[in-house]
């Protein structure tokens, strides 16, 4: 019990430091964060718990569960950045605890702790756990379903056991655990749609298809023949059907529908099917069949995304996979645990590689599986159960050092052009540079535990500094407060009716605290500004300098530009137009090439 409490304390401490440090510091990042947070705020203000709405328009991008958690957080803490991100941070901590639990059951207590620490300090999972998006709830409930499966198919081990015994049975018995497992998938469906049940089910199913295979008794004429047979064998029709039936598909369907379907039906009826069509046809089917918003990539997109998103622990990726596959091919009791974790990673990477729309965040739910493999690799290396070849060891820690050197060179140059005054952020490079050097030194001396601890310390420091300090400094250059103060700067009327032309970021809507309808043409802009508001409010139009400069019909409005705010990370300016005379008016529009 003492060992378990210590392990939980370590996991909680690491996850809390990484996920909660300055969580509410940076403002919400475009595009997804303010749209999700704004949707929850609008729903709460309207006492609407069913229909997602943002900018006074139906939002069919995601289901409702994330908004419910944000609304509850707002009710307790008010509408602010910390409250919007709090559910994600809590779910991130929860996922780390689930990963520790699975690692402990499958590979032993030390491997569980390593896996949880690895997961908490990877870059992409840190983003998911600190962002006001549906990713953290999806990952948590997907992982919860797999953790319940592991609990129901393995036996408890002593806190001092060297290794877990592996899977004891193929599927949880009785009704309680399977029902809870599929209920967790139903919650994941409420968080982000069908992927919440399809992919966790596929992970379990794929691992069962492989683990339940009988031994091969025939001889092969060539290695190619053996490879082909090994790939096809899991999908033999009768074997496939028996495995699927063993997972109790009728129970799965009934429980998932009982949890998720009521809301889907309710929102369908409330919106006359508009939400249902937008979500399933546009944001699911179309994303699978064609690249949307320019988010495309080849078959190497997700392997590369894993290398970057799993940093700094991706330095162990190649030896981890080699050892995992080698152990998974054995016939001992522990091989099933490796097969399960490998299937977790392979199903997500494989299926999303087939989809046309690609984003790094799509495969983040497989990070706990990869963390399990990394955790057991580190544990086995520390206990001298496996050898870490010198060439891979030097490549791994050398990569961390190289990342530090590259950051020291590149980051100040990038800041010089995009974030003037922040060149000092290049000092962040000292973290991987020093940490990688010390880890390499310890590894060369044969002190594997110290090498791993130096890597963990590097990962904790790098994640915390990147999310809590660097992000905050970058946020200072977004000038959102300048935009809001310019819009509401009328001394006679501190309220305003706002519209937009050409651009409307979610952060503008969230921080202005009101919907910003889009105008489609310069003529509508002129009409909007020339006519008095029925409410007596001042009227304001937000557009961009490039949009103004390329259209002669809007040039008469150049005299109504009362504010110019740099457009973050774009060679453009945000223009604020008001119809009232102002000494700050600019008589000439800039050329796009003259924009600062």
Give structural notes:
With 596 residues, this protein is mostly helical. It folds into three domains: 2-213 and 232-382, no CATH class; 390-475; 480-594, no CATH class. The protein is built from 24 helices and seven strands. It has helices at residues 2-20, 32-45, 65-77, 81-107, 109-120, 123-130, 135-153, 176-192, 195-211, 223-232, 237-246, 249-270, 274-289, 301-309, 317-328, 335-354, 367-382, 390-418, 430-444, 448-475, 480-487, 506-512, 522-530, 545-549; strands spanning 53-54, 57-58, 496-501, 518-519, 538-544, 561-566, 573-577. The protein has a five-stranded mixed sheet with strand order 4-3-5-7-6. It has a two-stranded antiparallel sheet with strand order 1-2. A hairpin with a 6-residue loop joins strand 6 (561-566) and strand 7 (573-577). The longest helix is centred in the C-terminal third of the chain and has 29 residues, at 390-418. Residues 582-596 have low confidence and may be disordered. It is a multi-pass membrane protein. This is 4-amino-4-deoxy-L-arabinose transferase. Residues 61-211 form the Glycosyltransferase RgtA/B/C/D-like domain. Keywords: Cell membrane, Glycosyltransferase, Membrane, Transferase, Transmembrane, Transmembrane helix. GO terms for molecular function: pentosyltransferase activity.
């Amino acid at each position: 019990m003492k060992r378990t409490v210590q392990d939980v304390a370590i996991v909680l401490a690491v996850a809390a430091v990484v996920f909660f440090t300055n969580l509410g510091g940076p403002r919400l990042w475009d595009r997804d964060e303010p749209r999700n947070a704004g949707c929850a705020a609008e729903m709460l203000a309207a006492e609407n718990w069913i229909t997602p709405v943002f900018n006074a328009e139906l939002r069919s991008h995601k289901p409702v569960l994330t908004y419910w958690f944000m609304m509850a957080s707002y009710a307790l803490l008010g509408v602010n950045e910390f409250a919007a991100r709090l559910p994600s941070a809590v779910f991130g901590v929860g996922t780390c605890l689930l990963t520790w639990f699975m690692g402990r059951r499958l590979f032993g207590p030390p491997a569980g702790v390593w896996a949880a620490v690895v997961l908490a300090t990877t870059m992409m999972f840190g983003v998911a756990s600190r962002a006001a998006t549906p990713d953290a709830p999806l990952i948590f409930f997907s992982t919860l379903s797999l953790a319940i499966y592991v609990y129901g198919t393995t036996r408890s081990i002593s806190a001092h056991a060297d290794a877990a015994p592996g899977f004891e049975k193929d599927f949880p018995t009785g009704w309680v655990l399977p029902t809870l497992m599929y209920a967790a998938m139903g919650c994941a469906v409420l968080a982000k749609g069908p992927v919440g049940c399809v992919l966790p089910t596929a992970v379990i199913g794929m691992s069962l298809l492989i683990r339940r295979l009988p031994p091969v008794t025939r001889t092969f004429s060539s290695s190619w023949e053996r490879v082909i047979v090994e790939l096809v064998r899991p999908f033999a029709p009768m074997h496939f059907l028996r495995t699927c039936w063993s997972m109790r598909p009728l129970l799965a369907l009934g429980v998932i529908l009982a949890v998720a379907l009521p809301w889907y039906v309710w929102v369908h009826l409330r919106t006359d099917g508009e939400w249902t069509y937008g979500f399933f046809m546009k944001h699911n089917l179309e994303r699978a069949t064609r690249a949307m918003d320019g988010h495309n990539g080849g078959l190497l997109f997700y392997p590369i995304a894993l290398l970057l998103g799993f940093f700094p622990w991706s330095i162990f990726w190649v030896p981890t996979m080699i050892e995992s596959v080698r152990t998974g091919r054995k016939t001992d009791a522990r091989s099933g645990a490796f097969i399960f974790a490998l299937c977790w990673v392979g199903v997500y990477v494989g299926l999303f590689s087939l989809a046309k729309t690609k984003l790094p965040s799509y495969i983040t739910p497989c990070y706990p599986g990869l963390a399990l493999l990394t955790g057991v690799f580190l544990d086995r290396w520390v206990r001298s159960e496996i050898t870490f070849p010198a060439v891979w060891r030097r490549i791994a820690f050398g990569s961390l050092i190289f990342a530090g050197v590259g950051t020291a060179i590149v980051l100040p140059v990038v800041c010089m052009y995009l974030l003037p005054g922040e060149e000092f952020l290049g000092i962040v490079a000292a973290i991987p540079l020093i940490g990688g050097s010390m880890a390499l030194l310890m590894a060369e001396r044969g002190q594997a535990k110290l090498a791993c601890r130096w890597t963990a310390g590097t990962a904790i420091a790098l994640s915390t500094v990147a999310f809590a300090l660097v992000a905050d400094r970058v946020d200072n250059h977004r000038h959102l407060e300048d935009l809001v103060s310019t819009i509401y700067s009328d001394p006679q009327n501190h309220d305003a009716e706002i519209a937009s032309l050409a651009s409307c970021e979610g952060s503008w809507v969230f921080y202005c605290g009101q919907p910003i309808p889009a105008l489609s043409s310069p003529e509508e802009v002129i009409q909007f500004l020339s006519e008095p508001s029925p409410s007596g409010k001042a009227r304001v139009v937000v557009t961009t300098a490039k949009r103004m400069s390329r259209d002669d019909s809007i040039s008469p409005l150049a005299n109504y530009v009362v504010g110019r705010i740099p457009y973050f990370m774009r060679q453009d300016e945000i223009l604020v137009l008001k119809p009232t005379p102002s000494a700050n008016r600019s008589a000439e529009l800039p050329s796009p090439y003259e924009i600062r």
